[in-house]
């Protein structure tokens, strides 16, 4: 059956059941591991070196260096393949490694003056050039100057603080939600109740349908839509029959 790569596991579950989907997922992992043993995959310094056309583009348009470098990378570049597959990293990381690190920000602004009329003692007073206000034109491959390293550390420090603070906040919110909903369950009559039997909604999701079986219409073929309608009608008949008995 023709399907989208991201929908393969969902199609397997819907067509042959959850047990077969579980086995398929487990066997796929073994298959991928065996493939990696036969075809070594690694990222080296050569994957971060931009070709001549990329360097020319970078010199011509410094502000668009990130996007230009990303488009100029060959399809065989391992770093680009890893980002495209969604395994790790992003195209922003590629631009930082191959083109330029770019503007550094603190509290959503350019690096402000911390000393008397200058950001660092290495710059002259009243210097409004991009370099003295946090713009790092070098890439990680070329290496950062001492001034660029300090300015880059300012933006990185703020990111570390935000990560530490947001992790605790979101983790506590998640725990509150889990504890508040841990006794809520969907009963056989279609209602959603807690451990005391109190009804929360009379019909799960307002339509009684399991979200696991939902498909986007754009990803479905005409025959799949017909099959989905038939399954929906069968489930609705069973639900109406259950209500009629009770």
From TrEMBL:
What general EC class does the enzyme of this chain belong to? transferase
Of the GO CC terms on this record, one is:
RNA polymerase II, core complex
Annotated GO molecular function terms are:
DNA binding; DNA-directed RNA polymerase activity; metal ion binding
Q: Name one GO biological process term.
A: DNA-templated transcription
Q: Does the keyword Zinc apply?
A: yes
RNA polymerase Rpb1 domain span = 49-136, 143-208
Q: Which UniProt keywords apply?
A: DNA-directed RNA polymerase, Metal-binding, Nucleotidyltransferase, Transcription, Transferase, Zinc
EC number(s) from the headed UniProt entry? 2.7.7.6
Keyword Iron included in the entry's annotation: no
Membrane-spanning residues = none
Please give the Pfam families that the UniProt record associates with this protein. Answer: RNA_pol_Rpb1_4, RNA_pol_Rpb1_5
Xref: PANTHER family: DNA-DIRECTED RNA POLYMERASE, DNA-DIRECTED RNA POLYMERASE II SUBUNIT RPB1
In its UniProt entry, what is this protein called?
A: DNA-directed RNA polymerase
Give the originating organism. Answer: Crotalaria pallida (Smooth rattlebox)
